[in-house]
Amino acid sequence: AQKVTQAQTEISVVEKEDVTLDCVYETRDTTYYLFWYKQPPSGELVFLIRRNSFDEQNEISGRYSWNFQKSTSSFNFTITASQVVDSAVYFCALVDSSYKLIFGSGTRLLVRP
Amino acid sequence: EAGVVQSPRYKIIEKKQPVAFWCNPISGHNTLYWYLQNLGQGPELLIRYENEEAVDDSQLPKDRFSAERLKGVDSTLKIQPAELGDSAVYLCASSPGLAEYNEQFFGPGTRLTVL
Q1: How much of chain B, in percent, has pLDDT values that exceed 70?
Q2: For residues A23 and A4, is the Cβ–Cβ distance under 8 A?
Q3: pLDDT of B98
Q4: CB–CB of B40 and A105 under 8 A?
């Protein structure tokens, strides 16, 4: 069965600190896709990144970077030089052959000025 | 391009009352999803439509929940009768098609409070 675990329930950092959000997943499929979504206080889930299981290359987008390691079934997300606007709940999610988007329970990030 | 539209944004009802939520997906998106998000949890799929056909409703509590997507565009999710435990956020999402790699675009959700 598919499962996504985000062990960090809440993280609090001071602005400009770097922060890493952990994500561990389980699936029996060899082909699958991993996602990160951001949910600000407004409630709307905002897509951040998609990664397929055959592409382990790390990705950087501005202050955001993602580290995908199949050997440990992890897809971690790092925010460099965090800002107050980064405060939100972040969800890691998985889709495999079931076509269902399975979300983790989310990590609430609070960036304090 | 307009995003996924949901209404109402908030709804407060008493238990045993009926309630309905409406969703208008992004134009051209064939696949539509309804999710339930409890406080402090990630969204959980209730039902998925491909055009007007419900292709996965295994997670929908059919004794009290129903959904429809007439003409393959807008969708309505109904609860009758509502119970206290139904208090949650109901999210609608859409994607261009039923492929596992497709990004799902989410609406702002309807926050339901059952008293």
Answers
A1: 97
A2: yes
A3: 65
A4: yes
B64: helix, strand or coil: coil
The mean pLDDT of B19-33, rounded to a whole number, is 95
Instruction: Note whether A95 contacts B48, CB cutoff 8 Å.
Output: no
- Residue A25 and residue A87 in contact, taking contact as beta carbons nearer than 8 Å: no
Is B107's CB within 8 Å of A44's CB?
yes
Exposure on the CB side of residue B90, measured as CA atoms within 13 A: 29
pLDDT digits (tens, 9 = 90+) for A88-112: 999 999 998 878 889 999 999 999 9
| Model pLDDT, residue B100 | 64
Q: What angle do CA A6, A7, A8 make, to 5 degrees?
A: 95
Instruction: Identify which of B41, B45, B103 has the shortest CB distance to residue A50.
Output: B103
Question: In chain A, what residues touch B107 (CB-CB under 8 Å)?
Answer: 44
User: A44 and B89 in contact by Cβ < 8 A?
Assistant: no
- In B, which residues are within 8 Å of A95 by CB distance? 100-101
3-state secondary structure of A72: helix
- Please report the pLDDT score of residue A42 as a whole number: 86
Contact of A43 with chain B, judged by CB distance below 8 Å, is answered with yes
Q: Within chain B, what is the greatest distance between any pair of CA atoms?
A: 40
Q: What is the DSSP string of A82-101?
A: --GGG-EEEEEEEE-TT---
